[in-house]
Description:
The protein contains four helices and 42 strands. By secondary structure, the protein is mainly β. It has a single domain, classed as 3 Solenoid (Pectate Lyase C-like).
Amino acid sequence: MTVPNPLPAGSYVEIHGQYDSMHSTITINGTASQPVWVRGQDSGPNRPVLTRPWHIVGSYAYFENLKWDGDLNANVEGSFFKCAQNNVCDHIMLRNSEIDGDVGQSGSSTLVHFGGSTAGTHSNIIVYNCRIHDNGNVDGFRASPVGDPDGGGIGVGRDANTIWILQNSLYHNNGTGLQINAGTGMGATTHHIYVGRNEGYNNLQGSFFSKQSTDVIFSENVSHDNYDRATGSPGKGFGWQYGPERLWFINNVSYNNTYGFFGTSTSSLGEGRTVYLVGNTVYGNRNEGAYNPVWDPDDANDSAAFMLRDDAASFRYIVNNTIWGSNAGIHIAGSNGTYVVQNNIIAGRREANAHDINFGSASIHAAATVTHNLIWQSPADFSVRVGSTDYTSLSGYQSAFGTQGDGFQTGDPAFVSASSNNFTLGTNSAAKDAGTVVDAVYDEFQTRYGLSIRKDRTNVVRPQGSSWDIGAHEEQ
């Protein structure tokens, strides 16, 4: 017995046991008042197992309590759940389900995919509370690296908008846990995507990434233990390339990655220019190089909590972030770009010969705004590198560059418990009331989206005192 195709409005389908039929195109004719339901018997031990892909066309459907298992069909390459290309697909929810790929897959497909359509838009889609994992042989590649694998968890392509990806687990994929990629010249067609409260870990090239896109927000996600020391796309917690426009990273946590945040190449492959990094926490980065295992602490391209490299005009705002116990702090590489680096805590640097802030280009540093940051290292010293010159004291840095370094603090941030990764501020923190208001960031978000992000990652409204606190947390 197979699932009927097409499914008329109001259909209810319940799947039991193992289901082996492939639906290269299954048409959903749901409506707002009469959606289609396709669901497993339950979400526990009797959850049904699907062994072949489902490609969706149509509108208004819920898919829940299902498991796709690629290990039961070694001949499957490609996405297990997707909106079919060149067709309209809207108002679709995938929830409380699992997509388990095949460790033998070697292609570049993602297990779940939306977009990539030339004849219809994919919109109003939700992926909620799913486990999406094991696309390709991650451990095998690390042991014997060949090529540049791209088998990911969730992919969003061109002509896709109004998508929510919420509270999922994305892990052990050969490429990226989630990647948004509209393609060259198509960034405006992929827009208004919200990625919130997901966990990504142990993905070869990273967990959360955007290429060409517009108005994408990554918020309150956790990304950890993503590393790849042998390909041209090293493991990162979060990242971007090819010019996304109005890309936001807000209140995320990144730890034990090769790079905490990695941004590069605003080249002619993308038309966007502006990225905001606000209220994020990064700790415990790995010591690995950009393209090989040899880490160079003086190379602004190499591993750090934040590494940003641009070779075309761009605007990057690094504001109210907290960095602790990483190999290096903020690396700014490349030959172009305008950078605002304000209200960040950079503390507990693990490597004494590394740098808290490292501008590879003196001219890029001269055009930047670098104020109201807190740098505290014990036993390591203050270290800001500009071009090929190291400044090992705040007074020396301020003397060399005038207003750069205004509002800097070098006192103890007095975290509640850094050893247990609690980076809220104690009452005696040197970060308290020492920041500045970066209106260009906070006003832009509220004007464009109608919501205020003048609050920290625990929802404490800023400011609580006479001025803003430095870092990702506002002390109450």
